[in-house]
Design a protein that fits this description.
Length: 325
């Protein structure tokens, strides 16, 4: 990752995002981590999941972050680059290791264990931001995970938003509340402040109940309407909601034929939604695309591996029949 204090925009991706991507280990036999002798080696991170999803859908996208100059860091860097994501501002550093997460599913419930304290990404700071790169984008997508990693990461997240707003770049913000990284009382003011600065707010309904400390939908809608952002509320019973100052639009889900791994569904949704916006669809239609991508992601193991191509999405949207042979 390079530091660039110049304000002149550079030609680059339409959508950019940044954050921590970690090595991921999962049991290969359906057992718990404690009892499994074999583990799948994968990787994941909310922001790179979104970036890969956008790229698969044909979008021009960039991701940057810090990875350890170690085997997993090099693998992650090459894999993300191989998916067509611009990684020209990403950095491999010998100063700290690549973060690690381990995941298991027992009795239908997913548990994630993080080993990311003092990781390379947690040491990211304002100096790692390239103003020209941000200025050249149309959308900056951030999540609430980055400011949870460290004080310097929080400062970097707010500075990235400031730079985007300075240059007329739209800010997309998914709170991605992670209570294993910070408590709700610490997270709430930070996430709500970022929501105030965003053009597009992408919370889950459960997150909103925690952030606004209420179960009352009408109260939540009232709070969302105090924001300048258009709010896209994921996690309704059967639909996603588009909440604006004067309307609420419900967009039905697509039914998944099978659910294999639910992690990454929200990131897939964001990828589909952002690509829909980049294609100049209205919010409801962009949400429809996001709903479809999210439903496809959960049918494959891994955080991003099931991300579809635009051709696959377009075929489903237009009910094109699959010819097997």
């Amino acid at each position: 990752m390079t530091t660039n204090s110049q304000s002149q925009a550079v030609t680059g991706p339409d959508i950019i995002t940044f954050g921590e991507t970690m090595a991921l280990l999962m049991p290969s036999n359906g057992k718990g981590l404690e009892y499994s002798s074999e583990l799948h080696s994968l990787f994941g991170g909310a922001e790179s999941n979104v970036a890969i999803g956008v790229s698969r859908l044909g979008g021009k996208v960039g991701w940057f972050g810090r990875l350890g100059k170690d085997p997993m860091g090099r693998l992650i860097y090459k894999k993300i680059r191989g998916e067509g994501v611009d990684v020209s501002r990403a950095e491999l550093t010998a100063e700290a290791p690549t973060g690690l997460m381990m995941r298991e599913m027992l009795m239908g419930k997913t548990s994630v264990y993080y080993y990311r304290k003092n990781s390379a990404a947690s040491q990211m700071s304002v100096k790692h931001l390239d103003e020209g790169y941000i200025a050249g984008a149309k959308i900056l997508h951030i999540t609430g995970i980055t400011p949870a990693l460290s004080e310097s990461c929080k400062e970097a997240a707010f500075e990235a938003v400031r730079l985007a707003r300075k240059h007329g770049v739209k800010v997309s913000f998914d709170p991605n509340l992670r209570l294993k990284l910070w408590g709700i009382d610490e997270a709430r003011p930070v996430l709500l402040e970022l929501a105030k600065l965003a053009d597009i707010f992408l919370p889950g309904l459960d997150e909103l109940k925690l952030l606004y400390q209420t179960e009352d939908w009408d109260v939540i809608v009232g709070k969302l309407r105090e924001l300048s952002a258009v709010s896209i509320v994921k996690g309704g019973e059967n639909e996603t909601y588009v909440v604006t100052k004067d309307s609420i639009t419900a967009v039905p889900y697509f039914k998944a034929e099978q659910v294999v791994d639910t992690v990454g569904a929200g990131d897939g949704f964001c990828a589909g939604f952002l690509v829909g916006l980049s294609k100049e669809y209205d919010y409801a239609e962009a949400v429809r695309i996001g709903n479809l991508v999210g439903s496809l992601i959960v049918q494959t193991e891994g955080d991003w591996e099931g991300a579809p191509t635009w051709e696959q999405v377009d075929a489903i949207l237009n009910d094109v029949k699959h010819i097997e042979r």
